Amino acid sequence: MATETALPERHQPTIDIAIQPTPASLTSSVQRRAPPPQPEVLTTIYSFPSMEPRSFAYYPANKLHLPLRRDILHRAVIFEGDKTRQGTASTKWRSEVHGSGRKMRPQKGTGMARIGTRQSPMLKGGGVAHGPHPRDFSTGLPRKIYDLAWRTALSYRYRRGQLVVLEDGLEIEMEEPRWLAQIMQWNHLGKGDGGSLLVAREPGKNLAQAMRELDEGHGRLKTEDDVDVKDLLKAGRVMMEKRSLDALLRKHSADLKNRVPSAM
After folding, report:
1. Contact, 40 vs 61, CB < 8 A?
2. Average pLDDT over the chain, rounded to whole?
3. Does pTM surpass 0.85?
4. Calpha distance 161→202 (Å, rounded)
5. Cα distance between residue 153 and residue 65, in whole Å
6. What's the CA gap between 241 and 48, in Å, rounded?
């Protein structure tokens, strides 16, 4: 039931002729207002492998509810792919091939084509013209853009309902891969539903052994240090421990720090 309160009494305004000087401290300082509160999104914490809901957790919307940015995701995937290229392909130019630098035959009088040394790229066993040499294929990407791509990939999974947050300590009762495959299929997480990516800080021994022998179409198991943006986008869904999700969001938040507050 609503509570009624009396209206405040109305007072007649008075005119003050004397003008008080404004303190210098008020004119020199700028009043700053506090930033508006950040909206939050709700996530459900499930147990594994029963997939029963256990509790709820709230995350800031700027970490788990960002709009889709295909351009940033593309740059992040290219950055990760270039970083993993070995760049060890190597061939020898004619100066690096072992052998004498003596001319093989006279320039004229033999009736055959002119030719130089045995290291010529035209001959078998000679040098390779314009061949590959060891190089670094890695490209640069600003840290803030890469962190934004991480949170964009997680937000994309969350908005589509494909981000499943699990309780800490993933483990199963036995290391039998067939038993794990039945669990994945029963919960619509296996091969017939696109497969799943399991991310854990320290996976249990039985779970790790079963995932190694399980068909890769059912899913893959990665630690939070080995997963990247491409892995988040490749699997049918992402199943992640809560502590791993918290650590990854905390790690990839460089663009949210040192923000300049509002002037007014």
Report:
1. yes
2. 85
3. no
4. 25
5. 10
6. 10
